[in-house]
Amino acid sequence: MSTQVPKEDDRTESVEHEAEDAAEPSHGDRRRQERDARRQSVSGAPAEPDEDTFQLKVFRYDPEVEAKSEPRFDDFPVPREKGMTVLDALIYARDTYDTTLTFRHSCRQAVCGSDALFINGRQRLGCQTQIADLDQPVRVEPLPHQDVVKDLVVDMEHFYDQMHAVEPFFQGDAPDDGLEEQRQSRENREKIKMSTRCIWCGACMSSCNIAAGDNQYLGPAAINKAYRFAMDDREGEEMKEHRMNVLDQEHGVWRCQTQFSCTNVCPKDIPLTEHIQELKREAVKQNLKFW
To answer: pTM to 2 decimals?
Structure first.
């Protein structure tokens, strides 16, 4: 091992290099500085969109933070990319500008229903809606007629209660021998096929003016779910009668005023209004008595 003592000049140069290294910010510090600069640019006057970017206007609200308890809109410049969806834009805005931006999403394949939003004045799935198909700026809000929890997240508890109220599960008659397969005809399968596509997104309920004014109304999603089982031939007459009794109430199918708003916004193209009208006819037939 060398015992040579470094020269004074070498020691001075080493100390200077160490001071320069200490003054240079770490990678994490640089990331935080860049993020703070981007946040500052967003919180100020919104940048004018150009050919490479578009403006995303997002509803913001956080009741747990005093400074954010008043609803407002934040503007985020987002780069234009081919195939970009509203959900992609929200994720970019959250990761790039403000990590507190809150919204729901799961599969990103338009089958989970968790990212239903009010986009440019219409209920849509964020993962299904292409930015290229929308007018600018893109305005994103939480679903109307629902209590807002934070930013774009709404309370879905009431919606789920209405769905469960119609007993959304198959309750067929047990075969006599306990082994016989319960077959469904092709015709019956085709009849109920569209009703099985519901993804519980709540877009139809949010668009329904009747549901907005009547908290007890089952709503189009729940009634459609009841239709899926009531019209299934594998369920017995006794169970079908029970389902129809649930629907044939003041706050059931008869509250629908056929405005077609639910059908218009359904991301799975389910003919909700037609199903409700068919259930009305079934309810009338069930109540007819012949002596």
So the answer is: 0.79
